[in-house]
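User: I've been trying to design a sequence by hand for this structure and keep getting stuck. Would you show me what you'd pick, starting by listing the structure so we're on the same page?

Assistant: Good idea, let's start from the same input. This is the structure you sent:
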């Protein structure tokens, strides 16, 4: 039976773009959607999931993404549309699952192999942000469609020439139906906005984010930092924090913002300047901020403290600091306001390892890292002691009980006893 997905979208007051109609009407078993940012890819697959569940009795629809937070965000779009339809044939709805009276289910799952392997006989599998979903998760998903001959849709903006999404797009066979949606096809995205994005983020990042181009990212330390950029404004911040990397011929770099009630770090500003004295930089820095600075700049830290700034020494362990920044990027707890930190974003496209990640030295080439070092000093201190949650290791074993000394050992150790030489 043909599912009336296009009619459903229009009943919700949304007029589909031509490429969305192609997706909604397609009967192909494997779909690859290579879409620019803000193309409407989440909207179209959410409608497809809802239509599949409502019009196909006993359907199982799985929503998988890089993080549980992203999966639940897609599920929230699905349930939002469902509520607009006044919840027909609803049996049960939770934060993670929608069950209908016709036996159909839509389930939101985290990107964990042990969780995914528990499902079978899937009618529709949707992998959101597929370019950053690990290959092993993708391989764990495919067997779920073997018996049911279910459909699979992978949608994403490119994230470099790597991973199964890139391989399927560049070298996949005829079983994949590929749909490319650059920003030039989206009338809602204005040309002046795109020109500003190209100017602020550079040609390479622009081509990847808005032109569906798989750009070379091998070796970059923070290849996904650009996805942390979000439109403003920032929410109320409960704690104001910032990071500083001192420099003269190399730039003096500072980034600042704050932490909200959900422990998300928002970056709202930067200062990036060469060959100026510390007095010049001090005028540019906000004062009601708790700063974490390059620990090697003890003299500069003392000068800023005398001027009334709250400055603490940052942590200079490079590998662990990079891991702390990467953790926030991957968990979605780092947000950068659009146009607030252009030099930070520019450095992220240049700061790289000598021979690619996972090879050679653990420390990157010390170039193009000044604003990124400021961010590292900030996050490594902000998240110190929180990288590994408690209770994740083996419980400590009981210490061995001390051995009870023998009679002669006690006699030997008594201070009053002195051996007598006969």
């Amino acid at each position: 039976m043909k599912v009336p997905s296009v009619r459903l979208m229009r009943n919700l007051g949304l007029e589909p773009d031509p490429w969305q109609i192609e997706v909604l009407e397609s009967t192909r078993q494997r779909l690859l959607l290579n879409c620019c940012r803000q193309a409407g890819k989440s909207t179209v697959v959410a409608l497809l999931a809802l239509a599949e569940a409502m019009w196909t009795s006993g359907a199982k629809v799985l929503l998988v993404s890089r993080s549980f937070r992203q999966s639940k965000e897609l599920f929230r779009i699905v349930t939002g549309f469902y509520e607009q339809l006044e919840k027909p044939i609803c049996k049960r709805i939770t934060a993670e699952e929608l069950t209908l009276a016709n036996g159909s289910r839509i389930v939101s799952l985290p990107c964990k192999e042990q969780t995914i392997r528990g499902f079978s006989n899937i009618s529709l599998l949707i992998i959101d942000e597929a370019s950053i979903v690990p290959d092993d998760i993708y391989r764990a998903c495919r067997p779920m469609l073997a018996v049911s001959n279910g459909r699979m849709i992978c949608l994403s903006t490119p994230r470099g020439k790597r991973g199964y999404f890139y391989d399927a797009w560049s070298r996949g066979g005829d079983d994949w139906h590929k749909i490319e949606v650059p920003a030039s096809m989206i009338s809602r995205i204005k040309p002046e906005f795109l020109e500003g994005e190209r100017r602020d983020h550079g040609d390479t990042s622009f081509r990847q984010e808005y032109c569906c181009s798989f750009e070379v990212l091998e070796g970059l330390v923070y290849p996904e930092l650009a996805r942390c950029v979000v439109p403003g404004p920032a929410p109320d911040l409960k704690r104001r924090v910032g990071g500083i990397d001192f420099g003269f011929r190399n730039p003096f770099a500072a980034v600042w913002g704050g932490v909200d009630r959900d422990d998300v770090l928002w970056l709202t500003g930067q200062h990036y300047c060469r060959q100026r004295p510390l007095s010049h930089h001090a005028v540019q820095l906000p004062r009601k901020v708790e700063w974490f600075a390059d620990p090697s700049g003890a003299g500069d830290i003392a000068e800023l403290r005398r001027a009334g700034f709250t400055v603490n020494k940052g942590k200079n362990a490079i590998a662990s600091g990079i891991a702390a920044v990467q953790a926030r990027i991957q968990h979605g707890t780092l947000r950068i306001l659009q146009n607030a930190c252009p030099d930070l974003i520019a450095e992220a496209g240049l700061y790289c390892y000598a021979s690619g990640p996972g090879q050679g030295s653990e420390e990157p080439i010390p170039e193009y890292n000044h604003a990124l070092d400021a961010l590292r000093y900030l996050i490594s201190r902000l998240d110190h002691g929180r990288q590994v949650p408690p209770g994740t290791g083996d419980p400590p074993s009981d210490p061995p009980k001390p051995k009870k000394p023998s009679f002669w050992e006690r006699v030997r150790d008594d201070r009053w006893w002195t051996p007598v030489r006969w």
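That's my pick for every position. To get oriented when you compare it with your attempt: The first strand starts at residue 30 and ends at 35. The two ends are 110 Å apart (CA to CA).
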